[in-house]
Amino acid sequence: MSGTVTIGGGGLAGLSLAAGLRLRGIAVTVHEAGSYPRHRVCGEFISGVERATLVQLGIADALADALALRSVVWFREGRRIHEGVLPEPAMGISRHRLDLRLKERVMDLGGTVVERSRQVREPADGVVWAAGRLPRRGSWIGLKAHYHGLAMEADLEMHLGANGYAGLAQVEDGRVNVCGLFRVDRAMAGQGSGLLDSYLRAGGNGALAGRMAAAALDEGSFCAVAGFELGRQQAGPELCVIGDAESMIPPFTGNGMSMAFQSAALALDPLERWSCGRQPWDACMAEIRKLQRRRFRRRMVAAQALHPLLLRRGGRDVIESIAAAGLLPFRPLLSLVR
Ligand SMILES: Cc1cc2nc3c(=O)[nH]c(=O)nc-3n(C[C@H](O)[C@H](O)[C@H](O)COP(=O)(O)OP(=O)(O)OC[C@H]3O[C@@H](n4cnc5c(N)ncnc54)[C@H](O)[C@@H]3O)c2cc1C
């Protein structure tokens, strides 16, 4: 083995790629701008990744005790509009716990993880960019917080509102993660978790906000992110990118973390060939790009076509009417975004 792989970004894509490369004996260094453990804006339910992918990456044990989440209830502005069961259970685990475990896994396997090491986005042979969504002027804000004692009506709840949506997922230690994606409203009042409360109430989800107010908030878990766009991130053709840094699927799918793992797994063979000197860097990079586009094209197109339906009043009317008639094709729609 000759080439060391350097990864910019120690989220799920970067860390799982590093673990998978170490399993193949490839030298790897991950540079992470932040440090572990830390909370991240994320719905914290993982849906649609095959166990074989996790095994290939050497990270299946990190998810072994994740909660199995099966039942789902959809609400629109407080009204229950649909209930269903996922064909395969989703996994519920906090990013606080998962990212730390993955970092430890990389280190146990002999990889290097450098924390508080912010990299500049620059192409170079052997460099994989896994630093997540591209910061840019965007129309979204993501907010999340953990609650104790928040009684759930199903393992997963989805709440549609006039300004976005919020998902509730059970994670470890009796916590419920509440995570919302909203259109930015610069006039919105509130700080910390108060902002989440304000966005929910403004979108007609006051009943959910009331349930949250009656539960015990872990204020340290609150986090927010803004300044991003969904879809292809346009990191530049000269960069080798995986995970959200390549494409960010709309969060309602609950598939972004699975895509991060899947894109890492797709990159393993080409990177191994480059590292052994059997493939030049340009060809390795082109193959990683091609494999991701082929694997993710359909679900990205479907998710981006469905997303506006959730965000437009007319779209929500249609969803509610179809659901009321018992005709919502929940499983076929789910399989389209997997
Ligand atoms: C509101 C919301 C809800 C979501 N809900 C879900 C859900 O329920 N289920 C699901 O599967 N997905 C969900 N997602 C998507 C999911 O969070 C992402 O798809 C997933 O985190 C992508 O992993 P990643 O490793 O590519 O990026 P990230 O997890 O974002 O990791 C990128 C890492 O790179 C680091 N970094 C950034 N810049 C630099 C730099 N310059 N140098 C070094 N390091 C850097 C960051 O600190 C971070 O640790 C949601 C997203 C949002 C916004």
Automatic annotation (TrEMBL):
<dbReference type="InterPro" id="IPR036188">
    <property type="entry name" value="FAD/NAD-bd_sf"/>
</dbReference>
<protein>
    <recommendedName>
        <fullName>Monooxygenase</fullName>
    </recommendedName>
</protein>
